[in-house]
Structures are given as structure tokens and as C-alpha cells.
Amino acid sequence: MYKNTEHQPKGSSVVYWIHKPEHTDIFTEGYVGITSNMAKDRWNDHKSASKKHFEKHCAVLFRAIRKHPDLIYEVVVVANTRSYCERIEGLLRPENHIGWNIARGGLPVEPMMGGLAYQRKWIQHWIDHPVEAANRWWKAELAVIKQQHLAAKRKLRDAFVPHTKSRAISVRNKQGLTGVSWYKPHNKWRAQIGFDGIVKFLGYFDDPHEAHSVYLNHKQQRVNDLLAQSRANPS
């Protein structure tokens, strides 16, 4: 059964109370927790976890969820910041072993460690398993390197997207040659190329194909310069 969960703004944090219908004292009964996710999602996480395993910091709560199908999941505080909810949780659970809570409330949570209650456990785990810790670190490093490589490729690709062969040719371009246009005041073909919003004039020509050849040479030179720059600064 849910209570007061329909008015949770996106991005807010909540203090919630899981209790039996006959519970009336939030200071001593049931389980008090906080979450930065949607309240109903957190409640579903509790139910799902209780069916699979017991975690020490939630063992009493998991047994209660299994034993009492009529539990009430109630949101008691909605706040813009998680730190405010941590203070409220600390007031409601100032000591260990109150209600269904094993540890006192108000402790900030480190997501990568699963909470301060497990921080020392994980630190000791990596000390005892240095090879596993090194492999985990290297895997994370590879992921960062891959992201940087893809970002560099996207940056390089986007630098000359307007000048690729697949670019649509203007309807005013009668010759069908990219970078070439007829300049009536001089009765000549004009070649020009643009990069990063800047158009560079390449000259006037009697033959449109000669103008197009000059354009292609400048384009290739620009591509070569960008490739060299990307190799020199992969990040």
C-alpha cells in the first residue's frame, strides 16, 4: 500500500517509512529510509531484493516484507536536496537498532560503495584482492579511453560534415561541382571553401573543373591537418 507518493517532483529526494498498519510511532516502529529515486521504484527494489537475498543492513526489513504482505509504504518528507532528508533520517533513527533499522540514519551514501556501512568492507576487499582491483581499474580506464577516442572521431567527423561528398548541392549550382559557383561580375568561375563558419576565397577560373580541383586540394589539405592534430592530441 502506498501513501503520499504521487506528488514527488522529479529530481527530489524523500524520506519514507515502511510499517505495519497498526504502527503509529515513526520514531520507534517500522523502517525509515531515504532515496533520491522515485519512491515507488525504491519500494519495488526492496520487495525484489527481499525475494532474492538478505543484506545485513536490511535483513530485518526483508524478513518483515516477506512476512507481512499488507505493509504500508509512506513518504513522510519530500525535499529538493538529499542532505536535508539525511538530517531528517538522523533525527528519526539517531541510534542503531531502532524499529527495523539496523544502523542509525543520517549517514551520507557513497553510491559506488553501497553506503558507508559497506565502505570499510569494500576497501578491505580490494586490499585483499589486488589483482581483481587492478583489473577493475584497467577496465574502467579502457572505457574512458574508448569514450575519448569516440569523442575525437565525432569531433573530426563534425569538422567537415558540410564538405563531404554526400552534401546536397545548391540548386543554384548549375555545374554540380561543390565549392564552385559562377561569378557574373567577372564572368568567371569562383572557388571557395568553408570551415568552422569561415569561408575562404580560392580564386577565379575560366574552367569550372579547374576551380573544383583547387577546392578539392584545399579540402584534402584541411582533412590532413585535422587528422594530424587529432593524432597529436587524442583527448
Descriptive account of the structure:
- With 235 residues, the chain is an alpha+beta fold.
- It is elongated, with a radius of gyration of 32 Å.
- The strands form two sheets. A four-stranded mixed sheet has the order 1-4-2-3. Strands 5-6-7 form a three-stranded antiparallel sheet, covered by helices on one side.
- α1 (39-52) crosses α2.
- The model is unreliable at 110-114 and 161-166 (pLDDT under 50).
- Helix content is 42%, strand content 18%.
- The chain has helices at residues 39-52, 59-67, 82-92, 119-128, 130-159, 208-232; strands at residues 2-3, 13-19, 31-35, 72-79, 180-183, 188-195, 198-205.
- It is built from six helices and seven strands, in the order βββααβαααβββα.
- The chain has two domains: 2-128, no CATH class; 161-232, GCC-box Binding Domain (2-Layer Sandwich), CATH 3.30.730.
User: What count of domains describes the coordinates?
Assistant: 2
Question: Which structural class do you get from the secondary structure elements?
Answer: alpha+beta
Could you list the spans in which at least 5 consecutive residues all have pLDDT below 50? 110-114, 161-166
N-to-C series of helices and strands: EEEHHEHHHEEEH
Summed up, the helix count is: 6
Shape summary: elongated
Strand portion, in percent? 15-25%
- The average pLDDT is 79
What value does the Rg take, in angstroms?
Answer: 32 Å
Helix content: 40-55%
Distance between the termini: 51 Å
Lateral arrangement of strands in the main beta sheet: 1-4-2-3
Major β-sheet annotation: 4 strands, mixed
Number of strands: 7
